[in-house]
Design goal:
It comes from Melaminivora suipulveris. GO terms for molecular function: mRNA 3'-UTR AU-rich region binding; NADPH binding; quinone reductase (NADPH) activity; zinc ion binding. This is Quinone oxidoreductase. Keywords: NADP, Oxidoreductase. Helix content is 30%, strand content 27%. With 328 residues, the chain is of the alpha/beta class. The protein is built from ten helices and 16 strands. It has two domains: 166 residues, Alpha-Beta Complex (Quinone Oxidoreductase, Chain A, domain 1), CATH 3.90.180.10; 131 residues, NAD(P)-binding Rossmann-like Domain (Rossmann fold), CATH 3.40.50.720. Helix 2 packs across helix 3. Strands 3, 5, 6, 7, 8, 15 and 16 form a seven-stranded mixed sheet that branches. The protein has a six-stranded parallel sheet with strand order 11-10-9-12-13-14, sandwiched between helices. Strands 2-1-4 form a three-stranded antiparallel sheet, with no helix packed on it. The structure holds NADPH dihydro-nicotinamide-adenine-dinucleotide phosphate (NDP). NADPH dihydro-nicotinamide-adenine-dinucleotide phosphate binds next to helix 1, helix 2 and helix 3.
Length: 328
């Protein structure tokens, strides 16, 4: 038996309940991993509320790091005793021990501790595919402006640093002056408090009226319209989340009228659908973290049994950087 956080129905943080569940042996293509730390992500909120529906009962959570305890038939890249970390689909990381597909689990380099591993896989791989693979048709060059919303959050702080390493001029938005300062300290070239300032007007000002080549938007409903206004002709709207609610339906014709814009809705799990792709992306992430180019800021830690409070704080926009759930 192991401790796990389960939901029996979609709803508020109170639905997150500590339970004991049975853990079996890994089948073909699976491993059993004992977690040392678990990553908290905004997608966990979507799973809890039902914005992304799950079959009940469900253990949510998509990120963790720990030690491999058992290996199923056909798994060759992991062995018992290996330190490992993952971003997983299906969810199920809010627990001490789980059996899961080995495909998404990567060996954790010695230079990276468990807490950092748990805090960076889903968020870091996301920042990576956004900045390196989600590019406008005209390409991205050093010195180009991009706009990144919620830049002081988990994905955001990693993206600020990685964008600086790539030579991009990242314009950050964030929900307070303190969060703006944090984004600037982590590599953003400019920062806008989008709760007090008109971010589209400020982006025009910063870019001399030209607009940005890409907007990376995980806020969704509240930022959608103005984000489109920030793009230059042929610019790319990269939507990847809905922290404020889903993006409303829109008429494609308006993209033409606004400058022949492109829109894409990306999800990490398309990028890591094979073992080879997962490992290649993870290796790149491990490199930038181990070399210090990207620092993983764990700003909040909650014991697993205080997960309800962790969700409340995340939804109330009280967190910055990465958050982890700790295990006694
Ligand atoms: P964050 O730490 O960034 O937390 C979400 C942030 O969104 C908040 O801190 C807040 O920052 C901002 N926000 C704006 N409006 C709201 C609102 N109404 N309610 C709550 N928060 C709001 O979370 P993560 O780093 O875990 O994830 C960032 C985003 O990336 C999420 O939307 C997530 O779903 C998405 N994501 C998408 C993936 C994909 O592949 N498609 C993969 C991983 C993450 P502020 O106060 O500064 O506005």
């Amino acid at each position: 038996m192991t401790r796990a956080i389960q939901i029996r129905q979609h709803g508020g943080p109170e639905e997150l309940q500590l339970v004991q569940v049975q853990v079996g042996q890994p089948g073909p293509g699976e491993v059993r991993i004992r977690h040392h730390a678990i990553g908290l992500n905004f997608i966990d909120v979507y799973h809890r509320t039902g914005l992304y529906p799950l079959t009940m009962p469900a253990t949510i959570g998509m990120e963790a790091a720990g030690v491999i305890e058992a290996v199923g038939e056909g798994v060759t890249h992991l062995a018992v005793g290996d330190r490992a970390a993952y971003a997983s689909n299906p969810p199920g990381s809010y627990c001490e021990v789980r059996v899961m597909p080995a495909m998404c689990v990567c060996k954790l380099p010695d230079a990276i501790d468990f807490e950092t591993g748990a805090a960076m896989m889903l968020k870091g791989l996301t920042a990576q595919y956004l900045l390196k693979k989600t590019r406008p048709v005209e390409g991205l060059e050093r010195g180009d402006h991009v706009l990144f919303h919620a830049a002081a959050g988990g994905v955001g702080l990693i993206a600020c640093q990685w964008a600086r390493a790539l030579g991009l001029e990242l314009i950050a938005t964030a929900g307070s002056g303190e969060k703006c300062r944090l984004a600037l300290a982590n590599g953003a070239a400019h920062a806008i408090n989008y709760r007090t300032e008109d971010f589209a007007a400020r982006v025009k000002e910063i870019t001399g009226g030209r607009g940005v080549k890409v907007v990376y938007d995980s806020v969704g409903r509240d930022t959608w319209d103005k984000s489109l206004q920030c793009l230059r002709p042929f610019g790319l709207m990269a939507s990847f989340g809905n922290a404020s609610g889903p993006v409303p339906p829109f008429a494609p014709g308006m993209l033409g009228a606004m400058g022949s814009l492109y829109v894409t809705r990306q999800t990490l799990f398309t990028h890591i659908r094979t073992r080879e792709a997962t490992q290649a992306m993870a290796d790149e992430l491990f490199d930038v973290v181990a070399s210090g180019q990207v620092k993983i800021h764990i700003e909040q830690r909650y014991p697993l049994e205080q997960v309800q409070q962790a969700h409340r704080d995340l939804e109330a926009r009280k967190t910055t950087g990465s958050t982890i759930l700790t295990l006694a």
